[in-house]
Design a protein that fits this description.
The complex is a heterodimer of chains A (492) and B (344). With 492 residues, chain A is mainly alpha-helical. In chain A, 46% of the residues lie in helices and 2% in strands. Chain A is built from 19 helices and two strands. Chain A has a two-stranded antiparallel sheet. Chain B is built from ten helices and no strands. Chain B is flat. Classes of the chains: A mainly alpha (492), B mainly alpha (344).
């Protein structure tokens, strides 16, 4: 719905009900015709209608000229300048229907049609574009300061590399399964094989994901505003719930698990009912959107921040492809190629042989929770109720750039973003809802790795650092959190 | 009322066989039309509107119906979405066929031009909907899906009214005079409710068939409109049902077909509000304005779970049924009932 459409609707709608600047006298005629009252008064009303027309016919020259022009648009001809009252009386009795012309009376159908068209446009819009395009990621940038040439250059280069939502491409140096991308992209439909038998689906992403995550994976789909938290914006290449070390990309397995199991307490559903191929296609497409999004940021940086001359020269494009895009794809490949270094596997938990062991572990976990080493209580509060002293001032990486020093500046800055600023909601363990999963292994990974893109950092050991806590301490912390959530000791 | 009109109705006695066959055909037509609407609701719930990318053929072939499971003779197996889409087309074709049969029967058995016109209108309405459906496939745009979803309820109302007209006129042709119990109050109340119900359907269509590139603020706007209007309609229908059926103290008693339709709407609209809430919960979880109060729900949504399917489909179908009832109430308030109840 564009501003032009809205303006047209607002201007056109009154025409059907305010012609020619006063109430349509035919309203009375219609009422009398529609409900069975004595028809004796009908002729008089039609005559009066005719006399109104007569008055109109005697109006000043410019009024008649305007009215004639209006009539030529509505009827395709000039309307009679005055009624034949004898004909009006005769036709009124036999043709007393809604909207029928009575003698030389004005017909409301033209205005009604115009009103219906304006309502139609308002409700349905007039976007006849069937092939969609990825919108440019101009979050945080003032659109008025970006030239048309810059937009077109960026859009065109991205389309060369990554295609469109209906026809995705795999850029050079990136190893993505094209068949799965075909399945996930496009309009939801089924494709037939050579025998005409529907054999594989298309449009899985648009069917299942785009309502929330948007056509470009920007997390600003049509339904984004009614959700808390916002749907994930894939374009930053950051995913919260992973099994890889801080700073590393997720494994496809991490994305697959979220798609299959959903996220409790959010609007992200579990897609258990989808076929395995469909899930693989969606995983591949999410990675595609993420790689595309990060590449887009670098291209826009080159055009808008580094102010590369436009159109982009071949060396610049080559650099973007051979260095920047290649680096992005390499990051995605590292966890699969070097799992020992990048993937965190929870070690076996300490043995819990009895209730006393459990309570001891929980107590030890509470000590660690309140300690300065872990610093959990600062945000989660002393009892894990999400009421820590810093709980109200936290933002994730998607919302942090929307902030400004003062509320007035933040409100001003908000116009540069699609979705308004929204703070993080610190987890209240007592609710028992853990978005990344509530299994002990899931909780271990959340504590050890942290939540990427949020102020919650990981405290577990990594190949590069010892970490703030030992694995056994992390397990005690997990048991404390489980106890606060009422989950009880894990099954042995 | 002109006595000559009654005499004209009595003189022209229709053929006896047509008296029973014609209403039966139209009642069947109505049943199939309702099934078509239900199938259409399933199609949009499963997002299968474009599952078959061509029309009138299906993947280049002439296929009447698919089967979601294999091994059934004469029915080729196909995925669930394809089966739904083809079933919807098949039922629409069946409805069109019955409408044509009804029209032919009218022409040869019923002398009354209004009954014939009702049959013609039914054929035209279904034909129109078929063409809109074809356009939906050909264009593939979200707004064509919205157009299809907005026209289907009107078509069902037309079929419903045509059926009521044919069956009632057939019953009344030989012996009964035209009804005199018309109610302006019922007319205006029913008309207002029908308009409001249709507005709700249009608002719901914006949410159900929104394109992937629509603005979140546009979606949110329609959410507020749909929810607030739905709550208002729920209260308004209950009040209207009371107002039309009971009225103020001292009003003459009233109960006719139109009033009873509004009474039924007064029962169904609150159910529709509940279904709307179930639709929201099953699709989007707890609304974000309430997560501070109910965040402790261990709610993990599941896509295409039975609850979601049932809630979303029922919500769409019931909305159309309510519109049909209100439209019927409007019509009956004009046609008038045959009975002993006085009008206002």
């Amino acid at each position: 719905m564009s501003a032009g459409q809205a303006l047209f609707c607002l201007l056109a709608l009154p025409k059907g009900f305010a012609y020619p600047g006063k109430a349509d006298p035919r309203q009375d005629v219609r009422k009398d015709c529609f409900l069975p009252k004595a028809k004796a008064g009908l002729t008089n009303r039609c005559l009066r209608l005719g006399s109104n027309n007569q008055l109109a016919a005697n109006a000043g020259g410019w009024t008649r000229a305007v009215r004639s022009l209006w009539d030529s648009v509505r009827f395709g001809r000039l309307a009679p300048s005055g009624p034949d009252l004898l004909k009006a009386e005769a036709s009124a009795v036999t043709s007393c229907r809604i909207g029928t012309e009575v003698g030389g009376c004005w017909r409301p159908q033209g205005g009604l049609l115009l009103s219906l068209c304006s309502v139609f446009l308002f409700v349905f819009g007039c976007n006849t574009q069937r092939q969609l395009e990825f919108p440019l990621n101009l979050e945080g940038r003032d659109p008025a300061e970006i030239s048309l040439l810059a937009r077109e250059e960026a859009t065109h280069f991205l389309e060369e590399l990554f295609g469109t939502p209906d026809y995705p491409r795999v850029p050079p140096g990136v190893s993505l399964n094209e068949k799965w991308l075909q399945m996930a992209s496009g309009e939801p439909s089924w494709q037939a094989d050579e025998r005409g038998i529907p054999s594989w689906p298309r449009g899985l992403y648009r069917q299942h994901c785009s309502l929330c995550h948007g056509i470009a994976g920007d997390g600003a789909g049509p339904a984004a505003l009614i959700m808390d938290p916002y749907p994930r914006d894939f374009r930053l290449g950051i995913f919260m719930y992973t099994s890889t070390i801080p700073g590393a990309k997720p494994r496809p397995e991490d994305i697959r698990r979220i798609i299959v199991e959903g996220m409790p307490g959010t609007a992200m559903p579990a897609f258990r009912n989808l076929a395995p191929e469909a899930i693989e296609a969606l995983v591949e497409y999410v990675i595609y959107l993420s790689v595309r999004g990060e590449t887009e940021l670098l291209i826009l940086q080159a055009i808008l921040d580094e102010e590369e001359p436009l159109p982009l020269s071949f060396p610049v494009k080559e650099r973007l492809i051979q260095e920047d895009l290649a680096w992005i794809w390499e990051q995605w490949s590292l966890p699969e190629n070097f799992p020992d270094r990048y993937v965190v596997v929870p070690p076996p938990p300490p043995p819990i042989a009895s209730q006393a062991d459990w309570e001891a572990s929980v107590a030890r976990g509470r000590e660690i929770y309140l300690s300065e080493r872990a610093q959990c209580a600062k945000c989660h509060g002393p009892e894990g109720a999400g009421d820590g002293e810093q709980a109200n001032e936290l933002y994730d990486d998607w919302n942090y750039p929307k902030r400004s020093p003062t509320p007035a500046q933040t409100a001003e800055r908000a116009r540069l973003y699609t979705l308004p600023l929204r703070p993080l909601r610190v987890r209240n363990f007592r609710e028992g809802v853990f978005r990344g999963g509530s299994r002990p292994e899931d909780l271990y990974l959340r504590i050890a790795i942290g939540l990427k893109g949020t102020p919650m950092g990981g405290v577990g050991p990594t190949p590069d650092s010892k970490g703030a806590l030992e694995p056994e301490e992390i397990w005690h912390l997990v048991h404390f959190v489980m106890a606060q959530a009422g989950l009880g000791p894990p099954a042995r | 009322m002109n006595p000559g009109m009654v005499e004209r109705y009595i003189e022209k006695k229709p053929c006896a066989a047509g008296q029973t066959l014609l209403p039966a055909v139209f009642r069947l037509l109505l049943g199939i039309a309702v099934l078509t609407v239900i199938a259409g609701a399933f199609v949009s719930t499963y997002g299968a509107g474009l599952a078959i990318p061509d029309w009138p053929t299906s993947f280049g072939k002439i296929v009447l119906l698919y089967s979601p499971i294999g091994g059934i003779p004469f029915l080729p197996a196909a995925p669930w979405e394809v089966f739904l889409a083809q079933a919807h087309r098949f039922l629409g074709l069946l409805a069109f066929g019955f409408a044509v049969v009804g029209l032919i029967l009218c022409w040869f058995t019923s002398p009354t031009w209004s009954v014939r016109m009702a049959a013609v209108v039914a054929v035209l309405a279904i034909g129109f909907q078929v063409m809109v459906g074809a356009f939906r496939i050909w264009s593939g745009t979200p707004w064509s899906a919205k157009l299809l979803a907005c026209s289907a309820p009107l078509v069902l109302v037309v079929i419903f009214l045509s059926t009521e007209w044919v069956t009632s006129r057939s019953r009344r042709q030989a012996t009964l005079p035209r009804g005199t119990n018309r109610s302006a109050r019922t007319f205006w109340v029913a008309g207002f409710l029908a308009g409001w119900a249709y507005f709700q359907i249009v608002a719901g269509t914006q949410l159900r068939h929104g394109g992937p590139t629509e603005s979140p603020y546009w979606f949110l706007f329609w959410v507020w409109v749909h929810v607030l209007s739905g709550l208002g309609l729920g209260i308004g229908t209950i009040l209207a049902a009371w107002f039309v059926n009971v009225g103020w103290p001292g009003d003459p008693p009233r109960a006719g077909t139109a009033s009873l339709r509004i009474l039924l709407s007064g029962v169904l609209v609150p159910c529709q509000v509940v279904l709307g809430g179930a639709t929201w919960l099953s699709r989007f979880g707890v609304p974000r304005w309430f997560t501070d109060y109910v965040a402790s729900w261990h709610l993990t949504l599941e896509s295409k779970a039975p609850l979601e399917i049932l809630a979303r489909t029922s919500h769409a179908v019931l909305g159309i049924v309510i519109l049909a009832l209100c439209g019927s109430a409007v019509a009956w308030s004009i046609w008038g009932d045959v009975g002993e109840i006085k009008t206002d």
